[in-house]
Amino acid sequence: MPSASTPALLGNPEPRGLKESWRSRDGESRLVRGDHMELLASLPADSVDCIWTDPPYFLSNGGTSCHAGKRVAVHKGAWDQSQGVAADHAFNRTWLAECRRVLKPSGTIWVSGTHHVYLSVGMALMELGYRLLNDIVWEKPNPPPNLGCRCFTHATEMILWASKSAKGAQNRYTFNYADMKAENDGRQMKNVWRFTAPGTGEKRHGKHPTQKPLALVERCLLASTHPGDLVLDPFAGSASTGVAALGAGRRFIGAEIDTNYCKLASKRLTAADLARPPSETP
Ligand SMILES: C[S@@+](CC[C@H](N)C(=O)[O-])C[C@H]1O[C@@H](n2cnc3c(N)ncnc32)[C@H](O)[C@@H]1O
Predict the structure, then answer these.
(1) What span, in angstroms and rounded, lies between the C-alpha atoms of 74 and 234?
(2) pTM value?
(3) Tally of domains within the chain
């Protein structure tokens, strides 16, 4: 449940042309169809506890990859095309600045990426005054082979974790240290995490080309939020962030621009909402 100090939530996106795609039964969580900047602009300053997001990596630039043993074109969508280093960085700075505005002073942000994007994201985070806390290395045990054989096969993604406030600030960010240690058999948890890509169970409602494993997102949220906290994802895709948030008893708000991905996300969110224990529902 929301804490007493949590504002009633979520601005009012409708006047700005955003369409609500999904709302939870208790009305506390929702997904809107539309541009991430419109959703962000509709949210009050200092209103969000945590952001977990997986922005465009700018990977779809005419290259190829290996899928099911075959060479396939990397084309995840026009949204994933690079506009050049300077334009890509300006894009990252713009949305990360808005994210910083809507985060509470105690809030933190997680941003996933490969080397195509995380260098820019890391730079933008520093430029905007965030404090970098960790670079989590997500290791994939079964990566596709590198068909070009001119470099190592890519088996990792990076998730940068940063706080809004500087070191020593009055509002301390949440880190559930003891929970993470307990999850790691009583040993301090390292920043290298091994998770398989989402299996068929997580894709039973349909496929998204860059779907993230729920276990990965869930660990981040369990580490950095409390039950009832509000989690935002401005690039929701199939709403893995939302599904993980609901499963962990947190609230969710997200934006997704693509109609078909919104439909997929809404199915997943509805299933996650229905699976919540009665104590967490109206
Ligand atoms: C990397 S994917 C996120 C995948 C997600 N983490 C998941 O597990 O399904 C990025 C998503 O951002 C969406 N997107 C791209 N540009 C957008 C924009 N301007 N506003 C909102 N969503 C956008 C894309 O349609 C895509 O679904």
Answers:
(1) 23
(2) 0.93
(3) 1
